[in-house]
Amino acid sequence: MSTRRLLLALAVAAVLIALSLLLGRFGAYLVRAVAIAGIGALSLNLLIGYCGQISFAQGALLGVGAYVAGNLGNAGADGVLALLGAGAATAAIGALIGLPALRLRGLYFAIATLAAQAILEYLFKMLEPFTGGVSGLVIRQPAFFGLPVASDQVSAAVSVLVLLITWLALTRLTRTNLGRAFLVVRESEVVAKGMGLDVARTKAWAFAISGFVAGVAGGLIGFAARLASPEAFTLDLSADYIAMIIVGGLGSWAGPLVGAAFVVLLPEAIQRVGEAFDIANLLSALRELAFGLLIILFLIFEPRGLSSLLPRLRWTQRRQTPGAATGFGERAGAAVATKGGERP
Amino acid sequence: MAAPLPAEAGAVALTAQNVTIRFGGVVAVAGMALDATPGEIVGLIGPNGAGKTTFVNCICGTYRPNAGTALWLGRELLGLSPHALLKLGVARTFQNVASLHDLTVLDIAKLGAAVRAGSGGFFASEKALEAELTETLLRPLHLADVAHTPIQTLPYGRRKAADLARALAAQPQLLLLDEPVAGLTSQEGMAMAAVIRGVRDRFGCAVIMVEHKMDVVMSTCDRIAVMAAGSKIFEGLPEEVQSDAEVQRVYLGEPG
Amino acid sequence: MTLALQLAVAGLATGSVYALIALGIVLIYKCSGVVNFAQGAYAMLGAYASYVLLSAGLPAVLAVLASMGVMAGVGALTERLVLRPMLKAPVVAVMMVTLGLLICARAACLAVFGPDQIAFPPVFPEGAVSAGGIFVTYNYIAAGILAAVLSLGFLLFYARTPMGLMQRCAADNSRAALAIGIHVSNQVSAAWAMSAALAGLAGTLLATLNGLSLGLADIGMVAFPVVVVGGLSSLEGALVAGLVLGVLQSFTDGLLTPALEDVLRANTGIYSVGALQQVLPYALLVLMLLLRPQGLFGRRGAERI
To answer: Rounded to a whole number, what is the distance in Å from the CA of B58 to chain A's nearest CA?
Structure first.
């Protein structure tokens, strides 16, 4: 990443943090919700968008993070420690879920993650001493570095800060050899193996790192809601997160954030509209319907996601291939790379 | 970078014998033998379905042959993973270049280097490595000007060159090229052939190349092995291959 | 023993409903390579359609047939409008679009019928058979037999009829099928229509057993383990695995769970193991994927470079 982009990211984060401290409670709530969803979406983007491992267990992994962070926090651990602990525990579980991926490919593995989601949901209900069973685990107000997070504004600021750290770390990661290996594994495991990459190890890293970030996001969700309960971490939540990274644009790093904002803010907007038209009793159905329809329309008409719209809105094209002055003949037609999806 | 293996020029380094692989009832490669010497380009030709690529896949660890040996500097290669083979200095290129959407030419070269030498860390600056790879690999392959271009946006010929750069970045002593000029225009093909000779001269590795285009094979290879129906039917200098009756028969069909 | 028999019969009945849904998933996967999350939505929609038609006073047979017809249309339309434009999209996007369909269908039913469970009008005669100490309602017998007969009939159709042959050909190699003059895209649409109709029937049958609610859509998620255990592209496998899973679930619910809970109550502070029969399919799925990823009836494929 160039220094310019780093500074840009820092500036955006600083503005967001300052804003969230000045915001009203509702504004802070929205900023926090988007920031946390953004972290979870970045985690899933690493796994699906970068390493090509489709997972439907993100909801449950966020749950693991929330339960672990909640228990650590309730036991008196500092918020930072609780989040790191949640990350570590979820990384371990994520790697465990990823184990079948060392043998399975594509669709089969995606279905295996459905099983992981179902089994974790069951465990959330069953492991009562740890999870509080069906009624859930009440989480005490956390303190970061000894400072209690007393208001929604502060917790929004904390979430934005964690989002920034995650974003910087993950974008850095993709420019290491491990990050490049993720991309090759995504395109073809056979080729990756033929190139001499250790495919199993590469995937294991993807699951562990993605799991760690999911755990941190889950911990933040728990701290924000002050409650972790089984019905908060269902397959529907997994679907929300997959929607975020697809709507945003698979494999890009701005995409998940755009998608997170979209998926979090859309229901809120529909809620406002619905209240204005006095159809409150139909609202939850309409919200779902609009969400589902938008996902479908998006996937059909803009499979590269929202973030791919931005560069096209500006006229400037990306750096073009310079013509081949020496060597291998003429320039190919404008075979512009697509991120994982092509339009028919 | 890692020190190259001690392969002496002129001494036979690869000896493959009796390599056999069956898929169900089909014997794709039957008792194939081939050897290669550092600094030499060996061409492997034959009609479609002769088992050339399958043989290369056996040597490169993609397939596990049913029988045979392939000794490389005294070590058995067959059954090793491509990962282990690269550590021993055996690298390959692909017939069809994989579509790697987001990687640049330099990225793929760095990845090739990392496979052999272990990866640079999370915080490592790679400026020095980038400069070295650009100078030693990308420039000779005419890729320096597109180092930061996504591979996917390059013309086919340059994508193949990028794949070659990736393989060379692992500093191989034995390089297996699977149809390096297939799909290129004849002009591109000749340029690629020159590059392959340049690679051999510069890096001194043993090169085995599977290829269909006879003009490229004839002008590039020091020695040619002809495969048909899974085994070697002829081996010799390019001019001998051209005049051999059996090879003529295999390629042009039964006379009369 | 009578309890075991009773559980087995109930398990076979639900199992054959699973099989109906799973058959649809396999059929769609074979023909278009799509793992269809909306299969459960088809079941739910079919059940609601039957409910509307029955409430309108149609005779049971006609109502069920008509709802299957409606679902066939829904299935074909899904394929035409949603899946066909996504032929070249990445796998995850295609999976997600079917999830989107599921979400939409659930929301639509929620908007129209509300969140509460609705009593399903009687389709089969009331009453029960009791023989040899076991006691099974007509509902279960009829649902089980109907589902089993339809599943078998479908397998026969697929294996023996010319259209089944065209289907198999299109699924096996669409390019070759095109080359020999089969209208592949029509075959794909037909596969979606048949799958949706089968699922619609399954949903109706399930509603006669358990009542009508949005929760019917969840059966799609249970059908995935069935499909994988059977082998993702094996119709026979889906049938067998569906029956096996139904019976296993029934035994888990009726025998294993009470026994486990007795043991736990006696020795620990845990009183309940919860809905163990609901995770059972997934546990089986994981086991299967680790031991025999191609499934009971599946075949291993190879990949070329």
So the answer is: 11
B145, A322: Cβ pair inside 8 Å? Answer: yes
- Distance (Å, rounded) from C-alpha C271 to C-alpha C269? 6
How does residue A336 score in pLDDT terms, banded at 50, 70 and 90? very low
Let me know: does C164 contact C157? Beta carbons within 8 Å. yes
Q: Inform me whether the pLDDT recorded for A313 exceeds 80.
A: no
In the three-class reduction of DSSP (H, G, I as helix; E, B as strand; rest coil), residue B21 is classed as strand
Q: How far A334 CA sits from the closest chain B CA (Å)?
A: 7
Segments making up each domain of chain B, as ranges:
38-47+81-119+126-252
Those of residues 122-161 in A touching chain C at CB distance below 8 A are 122, 125-126, 128
B149 interface with C at CB cutoff 8 Å: no
Instruction: Tell me the average pLDDT of chain A.
Output: 81
Binding partners of A (≥3 Cβ pairs within 8 A): B, C
Phi, psi of A138 (to 5 degrees): -80, 130
Distance between CA atoms of residues C29 and C231, nearest Å: 11
Hey, what CATH class is B38-47+81-119+126-252 in? alpha beta
Interface of C with A in 18-57 (CB under 8 A): 35
Alpha-carbon gap, residue C223 to C20, rounded angstroms? 9
Q: Where are the domains of chain C?
A: 2-217
Give the range among A157-171, C67-81, C176-190 with minimum mean pLDDT.
C176-190
Higher pLDDT residue, A251 or B131? B131
C284 contacts C218 by C-beta, under 8 angstroms: no
Which tokens in the block code for residue B45?
């030709």
The rounded distance, in Å, linking the Cα atoms of B188 and B196 is 12
Pairing of strands B67-72, B41-45: unpaired
B151-154, Cβ contacts within 8 angstroms, sequence gap of 24 or more:
B151/B97, B151/B100, B151/B103, B151/B104, B151/B105, B151/B108, B152/A335, B152/A337, B152/B99, B152/B100, B152/B101, B153/A321, B153/A332, B153/A335, B153/A336, B153/A337, B154/A321, B154/A332, B154/B105
* Chain A nearest C-alpha distance from C16 (Å): 22
Global pTM exceeds 0.90: no
Name the residue in chain B with its Cα closest to that of A319.
B149
Enclosing H/E stretch for B28? strand B26-36
What pLDDT band is residue C95 in, cutting at 50, 70 and 90? confident
Any A CB within 8 A of C100 CB: yes
Q: What's the maximum distance between 2 C-alpha atoms anywhere in chain C?
A: 68
Q: What is the pLDDT of residues C223-245, one digit of tens each?
A: 888 888 888 778 888 888 899 99
Rounded to a whole number, what is the distance in Å from the CA of C41 to chain A's nearest CA?
13
**Are the C-beta atoms of A307 and A254 separated by less than 8 Å?**
yes
What element of type H or E holds B40? Answer: none
pLDDT per residue as tens digits for the range B68-94: 999 888 888 888 888 888 888 899 888
CA C244/CA C255 separation, integer angstroms: 16
CA-nearest of A292, A303, A200, A198 to A246 is A303
Nearest to C100 among A108, A299, A303 (CB): A299
Split at pLDDT 50, 70, 90, the class of A163 is: very high
Q: How far apart are CA C271 and CA C265, in angstroms?
A: 5
